[in-house]
Amino acid sequence: MVRSSRLFCLALLLSIGFTVIGCSDASSGAGRSGGAASGDARSGDGGDTAARIGELERRLEPALPAMMTGITARHATLWFAATYGNWAFARYQLDGLEAALEDVRTIHPERAGVEIARLLDQGTVPALQAVGDAIQAQSVEAFEAAFDGLTRACNDCHAAADLEAVRVQRPSLPPFTNLRYEP
Q1: Does 152 share its domain with 94?
Q2: Is residue 101 part of a domain?
Q3: Range of the domain at 51
Q4: For residue 45, what pLDDT is reported?
Q5: What DSSP string runs through 133-161?
Q6: CA distances (Å), 45 to each of 12, 15, 42, 165, in order?
Q7: Contact status, residue 86 vs residue 181, Cβ threshold 8 Å
Q8: Which is it for the CA torsion 125, 127, 128, 134, positive or negative?
């Protein structure tokens, strides 16, 4: 999902033209109007198109804190959907949470020497499975226990990443008042 979004944005930037992002060599006349294709190694721009594309991709990657904000919202919404017995909505939120965490795992596998991907695999993924099992069983009691396990896994990951100040808990208020949590 993130990969296709990044590729779409990259294609959009490329379609605007390398001139806009400084990939053409205006001094040599190469670029849009003449010579080799703009940004092409033959254009004489002396630049490395692959490196420029890599830099654009890096800039399009969402920052980890921004990704975590979305994950926090899904975590809270998941709680209310399940505790109200809206199992289809709970499943939808869990699917979104799993996808968002997979994006974190893919885009930010390591941060400041912390192996985020490994931490997710060891703690969060099994906790997500337990939440999924509780949703499948449509058991509020099992869900609450599994959700608490997921919350512990989140906090364990934060602690391992030297972010003990970031503590997740059961939400006390719905994060969105414009969503219907009841089935």
Answers
A1: yes
A2: yes
A3: 2-60
A4: 53
A5: HHHHHT-HHHHHHHHHHHHHHHHHHHHHT
A6: 22, 19, 8, 48
A7: yes
A8: positive
Instruction: Indicate whether 131 belongs to any domain.
Output: yes
Question: In which residue ranges of the chain is pLDDT below 70?
Answer: 1-47
Alpha-helical segments (H) within 46-86: 49-60, 64-83
Q: What are the DSSP calls for 83-106, one per residue?
A: HTT-HHHHHHHHHHHHHHHHHHHH
What mean pLDDT is reported for the chain? 81
Query: Looking at residue 109, which CATH number applies to its domain?
Result: 1.20.120
* Together in a domain, 69 and 156: yes
Give 105's Cβ-side CA count (13 Å radius).
16
Reading the block at residue 75, the tokens are 């975590």
